[in-house]
Structure formats: C-alpha cells, structure tokens
Design goal:
By secondary structure, the protein is α+β, with helices and mostly antiparallel strands. 36% of the residues lie in helices and 13% in strands. The strands form 4 sheets. Strands 1-2-3-5-4 form a 5-stranded antiparallel beta sheet, covered by helices on one side. Strands 6-8-9 form a 3-stranded antiparallel beta sheet. A two-stranded antiparallel ribbon has the order 7-10. A hairpin with an 8-residue loop joins strand 4 and strand 5.
C-alpha cells in the first residue's frame, strides 16, 4: 500500500509489521547507479540513536530498480496532516478546533523539541539532512504522544551536497537552493526547520502569508518569495509584505526568544546564512518555551495551554489565571 510519494520515489508498506520499502523513480541508468552508491554510503554512517528511518537493506529485485528497506513503528502519520487539518478548520470555520484536536500549543512545542534535538545531534555528527519538510516528518497519530521520526533520508550528506537536480520541497527550501547557488547543508536545514516551526505554530508561511502575495500576482510573488526577494511577514524594518492576518498571531504561540530566532533567520539570515540560528540554539529556545507552558483554567470555554506572561492571561480566551492555579519557580 502506498504510504507517500515525493519527487524522488515511492514509499510503500509491506506484509511485514513496521517494514517499509522506498523505490526510486529515476529512469537514467547513471542516476540509478549514483543513487545506489549514495544508499550504500548512507548505510555505513553513524546514525545510531537518532530517530531517522535509515536504509537497512537495498532491495535485490527487480534489478532495474533501486530501492531500500527501512523500519518505522506503527501509529505514525506525516506532520503535514496536522498542519492541514488545523489550517482548514481555521480558514473554513474560523475556529481553533483543528488546532486543539491536533494537540494544541503544548504538543506542537514538544514535537518541535524532538525535531530540533534530532537535527542538532545530526549536525553535531557532521551531517545535514537535506530535503526537510512536513511530508517526511512522521509523528504519532494519537495527540497524547509526541513521537517523531524522519523518513526519506536519501539526501543526508556530509558538509554540503550539490547536485544538478537541486532536490527540494517547494515552500521549505532555502532561497540559495532555489537560486541554485548552494547545495543542502546544515544552514539550509536550519532554514527549513524555521519555516516548518512557524507553519506548525501559527499556520502561516513566513513569506507566502504576507500582503504582497495575497494582493499581487500569486505566481510571480510566490516565485519572488521562494528566491528570497521579499521581506518576511514580521520584518521589523520592512512592512511591504506584512502579515495578512491569516492563521494565528505569532505572539500567542511563541516566546520573545523564539521570535528573535525567527527574525534572525528570515531577516538577516535571508541572504547571510551565517546569521541563521543553529539547531542547538533552536533546541535551547524551545526547551525554554516548554518550561513556561501553563494550562488555562477556563477548561470549559478554552481548555488549551498557553505561554506564561506577566498578565497571567490566556491569549486564546482572555481568561486571567488565579494566583493559586500555578507556581512560578
């Protein structure tokens, strides 16, 4: 049964529990040979202890195809399912029911905590993941859990990988990849993570959810956004593409430290990759945000978790917490 399909191949389930197969869709003999060499190299790398569904064996038949076997636990689904469900509920009905049903703010921060930790560890070992997007991040179907695994790890590389194909997922690739000035590396991973984090938390894209894209020629403005030619929606020095007020306000779902990292990535880091926050910096900021979560006491009307603030007020419903509802250490 088909589980997912991307630009590089098809992922299917098998008759064996927790065993998946991915088959490349390349037609060129030379590209298939290069893909097989990449897989053989990847199987020799030190990825132990990381939540990455790495190749276990290369399939033997049919000999004209190149594919591999990987293991992945049951009960997982792509992260994009949660993002789409929350966005559709908000866009069509104007409610946060989809946001709540997919785990609310707490689960989102816990998932980002897992993702940031995995990528920081991967980068610390000298690797870059490559084509990072919500389609190849698998998370628990049950919102009670925040298990997270990376699949589709074909593009993992050391230092930087430049290829003629410039494999990427539209909307999540760093602008230098779109402009074909760079291959994937740790800095492009950090960019993709930042886009995913903002979309998961606010249901907004850092560039595509701005007024220039909303009011202008969609194709032309989206192309400019992808190439890094537009300011991001919360740019402090340029409001030409300011937030179009779709999704959730960033102040409700992030800390001041997280907002600074987003700005560092999408403003100065737009064209100067050394200014982008590392995954280690993101991991620290998200850990800090998780430690500041408070359950809203208005359980009947709201029932969500929010980030503690000096007003002790839930930004989702406006309820002010009683002093005996929490302990601040």
């Amino acid at each position: 049964e088909k589980l997912g399909q991307g630009g590089q191949g098809l992922v299917c389930t098998t008759d064996f529990p927790n065993v998946l197969v991915k088959v490349a869709n390349e037609k060129s003999t030379e590209k298939l040979k290069a893909r097989k060499r990449q897989l053989e190299w990847l199987m020799r790398q030190d990825l132990d202890g990381l939540n990455i569904a790495r190749p276990q064996e290369i399939i033997a038949k049919p000999t004209a195809a190149v594919g591999y076997v990987m293991e992945l636990m049951d009960g997982l689904e792509p992260l994009e399912v949660s993002i789409e469900k929350a966005f559709l509920q908000l866009a069509e009905h104007g409610t946060l029911n989809g946001f709540r049903q997919t785990g609310g703010l707490k689960r989102r921060l816990l998932l980002l905590q897992e993702l940031a930790g995995t990528l920081a560890d991967l980068h610390a070992r000298g690797y870059a993941y490559g084509d990072l997007s919500p389609a190849n991040i698998f998370v628990s179907k049950s919102v009670e859990y925040h298990q997270l695994w990376l699949i589709d790890c074909d593009n993992i590389c050391v230092t930087e990988r430049v290829g003629r194909d410039y494999i990427y997922t539209p909307g999540y690739a760093a602008p230098e990849i779109i402009r074909q000035e760079s291959g994937v590396n740790a800095s492009t991973d950090c960019w993709s993570f930042s886009v995913i984090a903002l979309k998961l938390l606010t249901l907004c894209h850092p560039f595509e959810s701005g007024l220039l894209v909303e009011d202008g020629d969609p194709d032309e403005e989206l192309d400019k956004a992808a190439r890094g030619e537009l300011p991001w929606i919360y740019d402090q020095d340029n409001d030409a593409n300011t937030w179009a007020e779709s999704g959730i306000p960033i102040e409700l779902v992030t800390t001041k430290k997280m907002r600074q990292l987003f700005d560092d990535c999408f403003s100065e880091g737009l064209n100067r990759i050394s200014a982008r926050p590392s995954m280690a910096m993101w991991a620290v900021a998200i850990d800090d945000a998780v430690s500041k979560l408070l359950d809203c006491s208005a359980t009947d009307e709201c029932g969500v978790v929010f980030i503690f603030n000096t007003k002790k007020q839930c930004g989702f419903c406006g309820n002010t917490q009683r002093a005996d509802d929490y302990l601040l250490l």
